[in-house]
Design goal:
The protein has 351 residues and is mainly α. The protein is 76% helix and 1% strand.
Length: 351
């Protein structure tokens, strides 16, 4: 396999306390949204073709560094150990989107049906569908490192996921929104896919190529470049959360249990997908350095993409956008618990 840039040896300060930072951003958004409603209204009006320009800039700031990290040259070794890659593709694209949609419908149309208006329930279902159809591309490298996963193989899995996402994300989302009777604005969905997957991925590939050419093929140059952009990426995430919750501040303050209700199906989905994938990897006798990242990739979400598309499709103040942001709040503590479980059970796998 090809060499990749070094990964962090452990969670950094931001990743370790991601849930706290997001919670603080949520609190700031709620306060500012109630204190400065006119400012948030003006920001909401800055849009073109249903895409909010402020949020678009923040999303690009978040995802560009991770796109630079993707190495498509690693795909030439795709056939050497196919089992882990096959399992990742099946779980991410043939299982996960549909189980998330099923859980969303179950909880918001049945279990929680008496706790919210049907129109609100449909918005939360839409947001969870977007989360389920967007497999993770960034934090996966952190989870892989924490389980001593094979970094080159993890990179191959992420690269393949990104390629599939270009052609599969929009059709899967449209299909699942359609079967839940949610109107699908195809033009906006396709535009969002181009804006938040195709363009950043192409820009990342060109930037990576330039950095490697300039440094004589030194992958450390890529690591240094993406590391220098990390503060901007972090700021983009937190400001996006502030905006989202600022637009929904009044509604959330009046319904404090809403966040917990949205989190329930996300947590069930996360643990369920992990154990399905981890169990399949064990049954298929995958070595642990491939099995653990494989299960963690399927569990984690590309929440930046889900947030951006939810805003584009349904608006900054929508329940769909809120549901995708709750995914950010839930993800880190869930993933840390699964990393710990994987490390405790690694002796059951081939090494």
């Amino acid at each position: 396999m090809v060499d990749t840039q070094p990964q962090a040896s452990a969670l950094g300060l931001f990743e370790r306390w991601l849930s706290l930072w997001v919670a603080l951003a949520i609190a700031a958004g709620l306060v500012l949204g109630n204190v400065l409603p006119d400012v948030f209204g003006a920001l909401a009006a800055l849009e073109y073709a249903s895409v909010n320009l402020v949020v678009a800039l923040l999303i690009w700031a978040m995802i560009f560094p991770m796109m630079v990290a993707v190495d498509f040259a690693s795909l030439r070794d795709i056939g050497q150990r196919p089992k882990g890659l096959v399992l990742t593709i099946v779980v991410n694209w043939l299982v996960k989107p549909f189980t998330m949609a099923a859980l969303a419908v179950l909880f918001f149309e049945v279990v929680f049906a008496d706790l919210m208006a049907p129109a609100d329930a449909q918005q939360y279902i839409a947001g969870l569908i977007l989360l389920g159809a967007a497999p993770c591309t960034a934090m996966v490298f952190v989870w892989s490192q924490m389980t001593r996963g094979d970094p080159a193989y993890t990179l191959v899995q992420v690269s393949v996921n990104d390629i599939i996402m270009i052609v599969a994300f929009a059709p899967i989302v449209a299909f699942l929104l359609g079967i839940t009777d949610i109107m699908v604005p195809w033009e906006t969905l396709l535009l969002s896919t181009v804006l938040y997957v195709v363009i950043p991925l192409a820009a990342g590939a060109l930037t990576r190529r330039h950095l490697l050419a300039k440094s004589g093929g030194d992958t450390d140059a890529v690591s240094r470049f993406t590391g220098s952009l990390k503060p901007i990426s972090v700021l983009g995430l937190l400001l996006t959360v502030v905006l989202l919750f600022g637009f929904q501040g009044e509604m959330i303050v009046s319904r404090p249990l809403l966040i917990a209700l949205i989190a329930v199906p996300i947590v069930i989905q996360s643990y369920g997908i992990f154990f399905i994938t981890y169990g399949a990897a064990w049954a298929w006798r995958l070595p642990f350095p491939i099995a653990a990242p494989c299960a963690l990739i399927g569990t984690s979400n590309f929440f930046e993409l889900a947030v951006a598309v939810a805003i584009g499709l349904f608006g900054l103040g929508s329940g769909a956008a809120l549901a995708t942001v709750v995914g950010v709040l839930v993800e880190v503590p869930v993933m840390l618990s699964l990393v710990a479980f994987a490390n405790r059970t690694q002796e059951r796998f081939p090494q």
